Model the fold of this input.
Amino acid sequence: MKRKKFLQRSAAVIGSSLLPSFAFAKETGKKSLRFAHLTDMHLKPGLIPETGTAKALHHVQQLKPKVDFIINGGDAIMDSLGADKQNTEIQWNLFKGTLQRENSLPVYHCIGNHDIWGWFIKQDRPENDRLYGKVWVVETLEMKNRYYSFTKGNWHFIVLDSTQLNPAGGYIAKLDTGQLDWLQQELASAPAGKFICLVSHIPILSICAGLFFDKTESNGDLKIQRNLMHTDFIQLKKIFLKFPNIRVCISGHIHLQDEIDYLGIKYYCNGAVSGNWWKGAFQEFEPAYAIVELFDNGTSKRTMIKYEQTN
Ligand SMILES: [Zn+2]
Done:
């Protein structure tokens, strides 16, 4: 659908009274940075995913006051872990085209597990292809690297790459050794006086990671699977304790929402734009994205925003 028609319809459906307004910064009088965190868009060809993604992007751009930028939290496309080259190319072309047509805000990208190409392909040896693994997503989204940092206002952002291949099958949520070394250097050399916001696709700490399957083990244990929350959390926690300027960690991946305050850090797991992979709500959570406000005194506020997926 053409952008103009979309905007006309969006305006009709949303209406000005339903647009969220953010009075928080005004109330507290603290200068703030405000961005939208859109995670788990899982874009693929089809009326509902295409319409829904465009709707979410339009909704963000109509917010008053305006957001400064968007963070794409990963799983931008439905899946390329097990998809062939042709199918992966179709999904990336659709994602890039959608961003170009439907969005004019700056976007910072984070890699999700489903954005990685070929790890689950059993034949044709994709590992010999130049685009294997994370090369395709990094090149397509023109990322500086699979993990990187940037500074905005009083905050320094560190974007991580959570997903590591498990040689025994599947993937594990953790930082590889090189990335962990880089993170420690990055934390030690972050601009003086800035607060830090970490961005990861898979949560570093989350209770919804344990609720993903909506049940306990037969003995009553609540299990947090190694591909649903960072397995190196305890190691990371010890590092984080040395850097009290780390205040916020945001993530996606689980399609559920939670907010945890642990040892001086706010951990926000921010649902999914695609909800139940474009089939309505996932458990209790409707398709949504987050607005994150970061204040100059190191505090933060996360607001989940629902939007209408279809016309
Ligand atoms: Zn994911």
Observations:
- Residues 75, 112-114, 201, 253 surround zinc ion (CB under 6 Å).
- The longest helix spans residues 85-102.
- Helices lie at 3-18, 24-28, 47-61, 85-102, 135-140, 177-188, 233-240.
- The longest strand covers residues 288-295.
